[in-house]
Write a structure and sequence with these properties.
Mean pLDDT: 92
Structural class: alpha/beta
Protein name: D-inositol 3-phosphate glycosyltransferase
CATH topology of the largest domain: Rossmann fold
CATH class of the largest domain: Alpha Beta
Number of domains: 2
Keywords: Glycosyltransferase, Transferase
GO molecular function: glycosyltransferase activity
CATH architecture of the largest domain: 3-Layer(aba) Sandwich
Order of helices and strands: EHEHEEEHEHEHHEHEEHEEHEHEHEHHH
Radius of gyration: 21 Å
Low-confidence stretches: none
Largest sheet: 7 strands, parallel
Helix content: 40-55%
Pfam families: Glyco_trans_1_4, Glyco_transf_4
Number of helices: 14
InterPro entries: Glyco_trans_4-like_N, Glycosyltransferase_grp1
Amino acid sequence: MRDDKAATPAVLLVCDYSLKYLGGAQTAFVRQAQALAADGVRTVVLAPDADELADAAESGIITVTPPRRGTIPVLDLPLLGRARDLEPLVAATVRRHQVDTIVVHSEFALAAAAIAVGRRLGIPVLHTVHTFFWRAPAPLAPFAPAVSRVHRSLTGIADGGRYRGSHALNNALRTMTLRIAERADIVLSPSRHQAQALRDAGAGRVEAFSNVAQPLAVTAAPEGGPLRLLWVARFAPEKRVEVALEAMRLVEARLGSGRVHLDVAGGTQRPVAGVTFHGSVPGTRVAELMDAADAALITSLGFDNQPMVALEAFSHGRPVIVSDPVLAGEFGDAAIGTPGTDAAALAELIVQLEADRSLLQHPREAAVAYARERQPAAHVARLRELADSARP
């Protein structure tokens, strides 16, 4: 059924993840939708719990929520059925809203259905990869065949490239992403280092294309008081919050109390001197904590692509302190890399920054410059260029 109000073609954004929970991928997805709508692009969001998208009606975003059949345990992934059963919903959405570009942000059944419909109808499909660096504990490697079977059953994709650079389960997880990426017209990677990894794996045309930064909200750096740091991420092993906490123990032992303070957004309270656990907090509270901080911490290693907390920090004029040297290289002077990857190296850097706050001045300026280049209007313009380049 055609939408008679549709005057111009629409962009369809597709994601298999629930929008009730805004992790990094969902945050990037929602910000892209908001950027498109704010730029006057007719924007359709097809995702589980899309009706939970805040301010969708006011911003002009059209939401479509697919029926949900349950949840895949452990992954907490909405179970939407098989791709072939979702294709009629995707096709009807495309026809009704006159979609001329599809952007998928995941690797499961809904994304596979959207790619299949796009290819059948000659509509460019862009696949944003939020992480190619899936990581699971090595003892779970025997579950790799089951993971592959489930993905094949959901997506209908039985052939394609195979990743072989890690243990069996990591290989299976990264193969999922690779096989979706192979079927898109363009693969979008928010970071250069992930883009290269995808090219090396055989993903086809891969473009480094940053996530959208939130509008600039630069505030003055804190004056006086302790050096304040902020850690914001999922509480998952790959994010290595324990590295930040151990670094704080070392700093406290060296400097005494009251010289450095770490705010942790998320998690449960535990007795760590100089650390405040805020539990789960809304985005507005994260922004307040960012304004109160001198810098944000990113302690992951070999996992992250382009953490959304970095873009948020930069938009507030805050640099990031990064344990991963590859990730630090992505952000240039807006990142301060630690001299090593462990807690002791992080503690050493924190002690240096506490002694000389002027070391933060240039990274603050670089952070604002990084965010300015990735503002919503510039993001939308580049996205449209890429989509146009993929048209027949």
